[in-house]
User: What shape does this take?
Amino acid sequence: MNGADILCETLLANGIDTCFANPGTSEMHFVAALDRQPRMRCVLGLAEGVVTGAADGYARMADKPAVTLLHTGPGLANGLANMHNARRARTPMVNVVGDHATYHLQHDAPLTSDIAGLARPMSHWVGRAENVEEMRAQTEAAIRAALTGAGGIATLILPADAAWSAADAGTPKAIARPMPDAIDAGLIRDAATALRNGKSTTILVTGTALRAGALEVLDRVAQKTGARVMAQQANGRMQRGAGRVALDRVPYVIDQALASFKDTEQLILIGAKAPVGFFAYPGKPGSMLPEGCRVIAMAGADSDLPAAVAALAEAVGADTAPPARLVARAMPDMAQGALTPDAIAIALARVMPEQAIVCDESVTSGRDFFRSTYGAAPHDFLQLTGGAIGLGIPMATGAAVACPDRKVIGLQADGSGMYTVQGLWTQARENLDVVTIIFANRRYQILHGELKNVGAGAPGENARRMLDLDDPALDWVSLARGMGVEAARATTAETFHDLLQAACQRRGPFLIEAVI
Amino acid sequence: MNGADILCETLLANGIDTCFANPGTSEMHFVAALDRQPRMRCVLGLAEGVVTGAADGYARMADKPAVTLLHTGPGLANGLANMHNARRARTPMVNVVGDHATYHLQHDAPLTSDIAGLARPMSHWVGRAENVEEMRAQTEAAIRAALTGAGGIATLILPADAAWSAADAGTPKAIARPMPDAIDAGLIRDAATALRNGKSTTILVTGTALRAGALEVLDRVAQKTGARVMAQQANGRMQRGAGRVALDRVPYVIDQALASFKDTEQLILIGAKAPVGFFAYPGKPGSMLPEGCRVIAMAGADSDLPAAVAALAEAVGADTAPPARLVARAMPDMAQGALTPDAIAIALARVMPEQAIVCDESVTSGRDFFRSTYGAAPHDFLQLTGGAIGLGIPMATGAAVACPDRKVIGLQADGSGMYTVQGLWTQARENLDVVTIIFANRRYQILHGELKNVGAGAPGENARRMLDLDDPALDWVSLARGMGVEAARATTAETFHDLLQAACQRRGPFLIEAVI
Assistant: This one.
C-alpha cells in the first residue's frame, strides 16, 4: 500500500466517495490508486473551475464533501475562483493538489510554484504530507477541517513521493465529526427579549436555517413576535416553493437593500452576517443598516442553526403561534410574445418538477425569479455566493452528481456561463439530468448598469468592446452540441415554454439558449 | 483627472497601448478612463486565462508589455496559470487588479479576498495604490518591474477609491528602462577557456539569444570550438526555419534528455538554466547532466544576451570561423493517407507562409514538429514555458494582436485547448489572422504515457474516466462556430493539407480539427 492508497482509503472510510478531477503527471500514483478503488466515483472536468465548482454543488446537496484532484499550483489556481465561492457558502471541500516529489523542488522545474501560498487565501486549512508516514494524519486533518462548523475548504498538498512511497497502513477509520459551536443561551435570551420590545426587528438567516423545517419554526417566531425573517443576499442553499414558507432575500442592488432595512431597529443574525454593500459606491454607505440599528449576533455560522432556531422559538413561546404559513401551489398565466426574464420565471413556475434543484447564476436576468416562483413546485435554490462568476454550470453539474433522481435547472447568464462552459461536457459524459437555461442578452448587463452608476455616460468604443458580447454573438446551441449536449434556441415565450416542458419530461442534459 | 486616468496616461506615456481585459464593477472607473483614451486598444477575453495568456503572446512578439485588467481576487486567480507561464518565459506584463474601495474592505463583502497573497506566487512585483496620490508612482514602479531584466510580471492592485478620486496629475512621463545585468568578463573568459580545452561542451541558450542574429553568432562559435549549441526545453520565442541556423531543444522525455547530455563534460549557460526533469520519476535523477559535468553560468537571464553571445564570440575568435550555416528551404514530400502528427508537420513545412508565428501547445502530438520544419519558411516559434496548459489559444490570440501582418498558427492539443477555448471568440471578435490546428487524439495522451511509467498497468475504469476525452468526443468544428470562428475537420493527410493551404491563403481566424 502506498501513500495514494492510504489517502483514498481514508477518504472512503469517511464517506467521501466522489472525486472531481483534472489530473496531471505528478498525480499519476493517485490516479492509479483511484483506479484500484471502484467505490470511488471519478468525474473529469475539462478545466479546474469545473472541478471545484462541481465539488461545491455536490456538497451543497449531498451535505458531505467531495474530494477534488488538482495538478500542482496552476491547476489549483484555475480552481481558486470557485473555491472562493465555496468558502463563502461554507461548503465542505477536500482539495488534493499534487506537487513535485519533495527532493525535486530544489530544481525549480517549470511547474514549480508556491502551492501553499496560492491555496491559503481561499482555504480554511492548508496542509502538506511531507512523506508517506504523514499521509493518514494529514488526510484526517483535511477531512476534519472540511467538516468543522458549517463547512470548510481544506487543501492538502500531495508531493509525488509521498504518494508513491510504500507504508504499513493499518485500517483506515472514520474520524469523529467536530461538534458545532455551542449555542449561547444568553444570546438566545437577548434575542427573545428584543423580539418582545415592540421595535421593528429583522431576523436574518442563512445556512441550514434555510431548510424547510427550520423556516417553518422561524415563521412561527415571526407570527408570534411580528418580526420579519429574511435570507442573506446570497446563500448556499435554500428550500422554497409550494408547501414551504415564503422568504425573501436581501436585494443585491444597493438602493433597494438600503430601502429594505431603512425601518429596521433591531437585527438578529442566525448564521448570517450583517448586510453590507456588494461593492462600495461613492457617497453611499457600506453597511445596509440605518444608524443606531442594534445587531444581535445570536448564532454564528458554525453553530447548529436549526437548534438555535428551535431555542429561539422556545424562548419566545412560538409553540403558541399558529402553524407556519405555507405557500400554496400557484400556476401563473402563461407568458406570451417576447421572451423576457419574467416569461422564463413564469414558465419555470409552471413546468419545473417537484424537488428540482435550481442553480442560479443568472446575475441581472434572474433578479425577479422569486416573484413568479413562490408557489412553484418545491425546490432547492442554490446561489452564487462569492460573486466569482463561472460557478453556475459546474455547480449544476455537481448537484446532479449528488442527486441523480432530481432534475437540476441552471439559470445561467451568458457572460458568466462562458467562464466555465467546459462543464457542459461533463454533463454529457455523465449523462446528468441538467437543463441549462442561458439568458442570452449578449452583454455583461450588470456592468452596463455599473458604468452608468459611476457617471461615465453612454459607453464609447472602448467600453462597449469590454462590456458587450454581441460581435460576434455566441451561438450557445453550437457550443453545447460541440460538447455533446443537445440544445435549442428560444426567442419567444411560447417556444421557451415548450422547450422547457420537453426538457423537463426527458432525462439527460439539455440546453436552452433563451434570447432575451 | 482621477486615479484611473493617471494610470491610463502613465501606461500610454510608456508605450503600453494594448489592454487585455475582463472587467467587473470595481474596475468601472478604469473602464471609463480607458473609454476616454482611444489610443488604448482594449481587447476583451471571456475568461481571465485568455486575458493573461494573450498578454503573454502579445509581449513575446511586441517586445513590450501589454496591460491586463482583472476583476478582484477571483479574476486574478483565473489568470494566474498563464501568468505562471509568462513568469517562466520572462515575459514583461503589467496586471491591474481592481479591488474594493479601501474603506469597504472592513466589511468583508462577498468578493473580498487576499489579492496580494494570490498574486505573489506568480508575480515578480506586487504593489497597491493605497490612494490616488500613490497612483503615478505605483504605476511607474509596476512598469519598471515589468521592464527589468528579461521581463517581469508586475501586479498592481487598484482599489476603487484610488481609481475614482481626483488628483492634480501633472504630465505623465516615460520612465527610464532599467539597465540589464552587467556581463561578467571573467565568466566570458572562463567560458572561452573551457571551449578550448577539448572537452565535450554544450552551450545552452534561451531568451533573446534565440533570435536569428544571435544564433548566427553562436553557430560561428560552435564551428570555431566544436561545441554543441542547444535551446532550453521550453522557450518564450525562438527564430527558426529557412535562412536561419538549425537548433534543437532539450527533449521533454526524461530518458531522451538524459541520453542527450550523457557525453557532455561542460555546460555553458547563456540565459538558460541547467536542465532538470520536468517531473521527478522514481529511480531517475533530477538533473539531466552526468556526474561531474562542469557548469559555467556565463550570462544570467537578466543580462543582455545578444551582447553576451557577441562577447563570447570575440573571446573565442569566432570571426575567423566560416559564416553561419543557414538552413536551405526544404519542401518535404506530401504525406498521404492517415492523418498523423508527422503529416501535419509536413503540411506545415510546405504551406506555412513567411514570417508565420507558430504557437505550440501540441504537447505529445507536436514533439516531432521540428524534424520536418527546419527548412520551412522562416518563422517564430513560441512555446508553453511553464507547463500550465491552456496557454495555446490565448497566446496565439495575443501574438496576432501584436503582429497583424503575420500569420499565426496554433498547434493545439485538444485537452489543453479546452482549458481556454474561450479565446477563439476573441479571435473572431478582433478578426485575428490565426489558424488553430487541433490535434484531436481525444485523450490526455501524455498522461496515458505517464500512467504506464508509474507501472500502473493498463488503465481501468476510473483511470480511463480521468484520462480519456472520447465519451463524448468533442466536436471542435461546432465549438469554433459557436464562437464565430470558421472551422473544418480533417481525417486524412490530403484533406488536412488542402484545408491548411486554404486557411493560409485567406485572412482571419480558422480552426482545423485534425483527427489523429
Summary: Chain A has three domains: 3-164, 185-320, 341-515. The first strand of chain A starts at residue 18 and ends at 21. The radius of gyration of chain A is 24 Å. The longest helix of chain A spans residues 72-89.
